[in-house]
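Mods, move this if it's the wrong board.
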Amino acid sequence: MPRNKTEERRSREITTLVGHIHRRIDFRYPPFRFEDFLASHDSYKVFEVDLPLGLDGRILFTPDGEQKTIYLRKWNARTRLRFTLAHEIMHAELHFQAGKLQNLAACRTSEHFRDGRRDVLEREADLGAAHLLMPLWMIDRHVPYRIKREYPDSVVKELARLFRVSDTAMRIQLKNYIAHDGEFLAL
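Not the wrong board. Structure tokens:
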């Protein structure tokens, strides 16, 4: 969750951008369908390839940004592939046009820094990926009840299955859901 006014503003901008993507592909029911996204965004090419352990994905851009090629580590679990693909898409949608990417590329690694030491662009791409795959308004429709403490494993597992994400990704997004004020804007 955002910690200051700048992060709150940026979080709203990311959520707004994700909302535009959801509306463009008419995303109303989980899971997020990358087929629909890629059909409406034909500048993306996606390949599952042998990437070294620790490198989950990479996106490369042509100099004009018109073509985006995403490489995913084919040995990762499907849920991890889905999150990595969403993460790389968010780099393209959030960071390329703003000129924030160096060398016309971005990568997702398996580093486990969740304490704020990760690069701001990586944290933004993760936030966008989470909202792309598990929007809070959609979680609100499917969560069996609203509580102010951590949800039990049975709820986490069922929602993770429904949204086709890892239990860990859903657990993190449910913490964001719990912390939210409860006013959710849907499509």
